[in-house]
Amino acid sequence: MAQDKIQQMIEDGIDQVKVSQANVPVVLVGGGSILVDETRELAGASKVIKPPHFGVANAIGAALGQVSGSVDYVVSMPVRLPEMTQEVYADAYAEARQQHISEAKTKAVKEAVTKGAEENTVEELEVSETPLAYLPGNVTRIKVKVAGNLCLQPPVGGSTGPVFGEEEISLKFLEIQEDVLVPPIDSSAEQDRLKDRSVVDVCTTEETPYINPQGEWELSKWDIECIVVGAGILGCGGGGSPYIGRLKALKTLEEGKTIRVITPERIAARISDDDLIAAVGFMGAPAILIEKLTSGTETTGALKCFQDLYTIGQYKDGVLHKTDGVNIESGDGVKYIDNYQPTQESKTASTKLSGKKIVALMSDEIGGLNAIEPLVDSAHLDLPVVDCDGMGRAFPELQMTGPCIYGCPVCPSCLVDDKGKRAVTLQADSPKHLENHFRQTLGGMGFAAGLVMAPLTKHDILKSCVLYSMSRAWRLGNCVLYARSQKTSPVQALLDLNNGKLLCLGKISDVHRRTEGGFNPGVITIEGVGEYFGHTVQINFQNEYLIARKVCTTPSADTEILACTPDLICMVDSDTGQPIQSEEVRYGLRVTVFGLPSVPLLCTPQALPVVGPRAFNYDIDFRPLGQYVELGPIGPK
Q1: Cα gap 607→612, rounded to integer Å
Q2: Residue 28 DSSP code
Q3: What is the pTM of this model?
Q4: Are 519 and 542 in contact (CB under 8 A)?
Q5: d(Cα 290, Cα 545) in Å, to the nearest integer?
């Protein structure tokens, strides 16, 4: 019934804002208050109050509210010319950016004043910029919102419209009427009654992971919620927002499909040396997904393209033996097909590849959306997902995965967009050549596409991948969600679990971002609050957060490096512990920044030139934050 639904939503809302288990008084105001059935007990409420004139509270609030002004439009930013050095281009870009933002702020303030705001009280509420890579030119969307107090005095020189009088405006507090109180309820009984309930679309009842008779971890809705939060933290700002993946994964479970996760040791004992494990995910600029949602066919299309290479093209050892209707090109260290559309079509979807077979999927990176996508694809293919990934976090480039660093094959690889364009590399001189080629290809795909790298054997998994990363994401997310339910600090719980280090607590004061070559590079400035008051921290990012540094106010003082890649730099909401992706960062957010030690696999002399600070052109020596803590798998080994 609708009344039951209303009752549940209100009770869930009460529970979310309480700071302890004790019942609290609830005040109902506004037009919607009449929908609350006063004859029914309201869980979590010690008493329910409807003051006189409760139905017009919205009007009173509107009269007290501030007057806002906003602008939202796109501007053209400078394009780097061939003769420009990086320093010249950076200066030109910064100057143009500052000019456009200043103009937008001026327009927003003017609009607020025109609507009736007092000019000297107008303050900035939001300043954001989003590069739009799928539009021609270097185009950025700028959005500014301001607000100020309502001006009660007529402007100098008179007014052409109605103005408020000069009489004193006062509000009288409304007296609470005791006769409308709902009788108190038995709190312990209500807690028992609420144990089996959950918020719509968000599972809030903690569940113990279920291991089936085959030793596989079958994911529940609670497991998905935990993994989504954990993947957002491990994404270090990149990997794409896991929210979209969360919706897809929950829908998959609601359709009756099963998502299974298996440990690397268990699947290695089950499969042959010829069986393959495919890494799937998205490649591109995460900010693009704000404006351009996924179609849901990108990664499955990449898997289908991979199948066609073997079954139709008879691919083997870097050579496509059947090339009817296919144009193979070479250049820049790769042999590739711009759009693989063979004249013959495979009749059915299959995981068999000319004598070999894909027996499982895995995440190329455990961060963000790319941690969730294999879960969805595996359920549709009825395959397990291996509890591992290529890096234990997210990184912006393909060559930064463990399999690439430690010599595993990178070809063939398939990149497929939402319109069905299928780019294929048959051979590449190095993983970096593959990265450069696909990054250039992304420009014609709207800077977002599904990716399948060359499948791995069980031996490749055990020697070059980060083990138990899906389990680690679950443990991080479970830690945050449990801390929320207990009204304790999620951030402190995360630091205790992972030997982490708190870097900064503050407010975002500036975000400078752009889309460049399929990346979202930029700088975030954070002004410290609380114990960090007076501190300014800057975070350099390229999709992922790479360098965190304390900015010194004294010109002669050296900048202090707080943390750097490959250690994880994570940004979360200060109150809820909810991870914040780099494309979601905006002016005014209250955030907590902390660091987590990297997996040892990325801290070796072989790995650091690929994933350390100098791989991103920062002249910084990597200094580990601390000892990595191995949390172990959820499922049995």
Answers
A1: 8
A2: -
A3: 0.74
A4: yes
A5: 18
